[in-house]
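Checklist before submission:
- one chain only
- standard amino acids only
- sequence pasted in full

Submission:
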Amino acid sequence: MEKVTEKLILEKASPKTNKLEQVKTLNLSELALKHQDLPVKLLSRLQSLERLDLSRNRLQELPKNLKLPVLRYLDLSDNQMEDVTTLGSLEGLEELKMEDNLYVTVSDNYKMMVLLPNLRIYNGKDITTTANHVRFVYSENLMTRIIAVWEKSFSLPDPITAEKMSALETKFVNDARRQVKFGPSSVSDFTKWRVEILAKEYLRSLTDPKEEAENEKSSKTKENCDVSTPSKRKKTGSSTENNINLTPRKRTRTDLPSSPAAESPRKSSLRTNLQSVAQTIRLSPRKPAQLPSTPTRGQGGALTPRKELKAGQNKEDGAQIKQKEDVVKKDLRAIELPKSCINTQPVHLKPLHVLQCHSKQDNSEDFSTQLWACAFQPLPDSSGSGGSRLVATCGGDSLCVIDCETGMVLKKYKVPREEFFSLAWSTVLMSRGGGASAQHCSILAAGGKRGLVKLIHPRNNVAYGEFRASRKSLSVLRFNHHQGNFLFTGSYDKKIVLWDIGGVDSQYNFKVVQLLMLEVSATPLHLCLPPKTPNLHLLTACEDGLHCYNTQLGTNNSTKNRSKEMEITFPIYKKEDKDTNYHTIDGLSFLTEDIVASKNYLHSCIYLWSWSKTMTQRPGKNKEVCAVVLAELQWASTEIPYLALNTCPGQAYIVCGDDKGRLWTYHVTDLQKKNFQAGKPIRPTEVLGWPAPVRKGLGKLEGPSINSVTMDPELNFLVALSDKNMVIVWKREESS
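Returned file contents:
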């Protein structure tokens, strides 16, 4: 047997490295090691270790409290493992191999599923569905029985003392272990082990107000079989022209047609060619010269050479599309924030591409299709350098994946009679079988008018499945990126549902399980998970306000249907009257782990407020708490709703488009209270003007409403979506 030393670890590390802190892969197989041979202090220095092979040794357990924070893969096959609870400290583990451990039972397998919340691949098979059943459904059944034992025979002592509580805990836990019967006899050892843990948790919840669960009874939700038109949206204080029936998110606008004819922006698109390619307007990559007070134009509307668009080309049919741009001077000059608020220089963005990639029947004259959601692809491997340059966009009946650098539409998916309103990226595990280790893969979920969630693996160009999330239209999708297989869907039937979509295998088999349903009082528009507690809270921006829900699974408050925990209110509400309602929250995003940016419809400012300070308040009788506002950011004055903001936390940036095609940007890196005591809104760092491209025969295109924006984590690219079928790509310009 070879003693595990720092030298041995460095010799076996791959890739070769001279520092333990940089080791990512380590193979310690076939060394005849026992658990006492594994030095905890030495292994704990492997803070970057992602893969560890301990197969073919003599391990009966792992060292207790072994901390390997980013370990994702562990091979313990062909050992003598008995105590699997020692794996509990490896909470980030996603794949585990335990073949040929003779003493590992079914109960031990269940214990590992509970102890390792991220475990998805076990012995080469996807166990996501089974694991989440054990973690949540099985645990809920046990908790129900534990509570019944308590209510039948126990009560808290008066007065409560440590000695009395210790004796009560021992008695209660023993009775619960003896009386609670559930599941097959083959897992009775697991059941007793889990009952002991849950019983102690329940007893603590009775004595600690902070952990006391909200056990409100909610009526059983009947399945909504109504397939009628989704609830309609209106602008507050405005009338609907000629009684048009508005589909979700369609705006009451004076420039819309007066009848719901073929021109209607939200009319279902016609069946179109799946092989289509976008019409592309490409902006000049050269840095424009300083612009005069008005755009430089020649006679007849011709542009000066430095303002011309390059001719776009349809890559499939080879047709040349002669297009030009007219770069308009920014309406507002760049306004710097107070120096005390800026730690680094703000970025400079220039327009790079304008794409028409969601046209009906690939018609380049289509300027009516509204685009609604966009997001950059997350990088599965955090070690990769540079940010993602692939962005997904949706609108009309299509979903596109675009390379922001080249402006090329790499993938395009069309679904006849669909109208996509939302999309979300995630990373799940794909098991490959044959003993090969699972690999991470980026998937895309999209949904809209039909109430179906489409699941797509863009890299392999496979739309591998779908499932019905609602009988009505889906308004928003959001993945939990700490648990990549957990997907929240919000719909026009006023419901938010948490789904476990699992992973996929090499044949793209998958299974979807509903874990939780939340009843909301209005259509949900945005969903946000607090960065520090993504498994505990959900912020929901709705048409009637901002609500917070407890989404923790596997606890004594884990009834599937829950009511809201609290509503977060804002100072602008005090200015409401019978004609003006500011409650619609149409923009929501976290700027940091604590600071939230949100926007109230009809309010010409964006609020920055503290999540932690807001949550420390005790809700009033209506479950209301007032947001602890840190600052207000000056924004456009408009009556157009659903213009969503977004943030780039790594660069301390907030961006929100307006109804004239402009992008209001805010570089906020310091929010000390002393800087904002004056009470005046902070002016934007810069307002990026509408690029105003020109199409042959159509003249200059006026600035449309910017429905959505997104940025990659390093802010190399910014993508904006308009309500007139244009995707605008901005690129970061290096400072000279």
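Reviewer check: Confidence is low (pLDDT under 50) at residues 210-343, 382-386.
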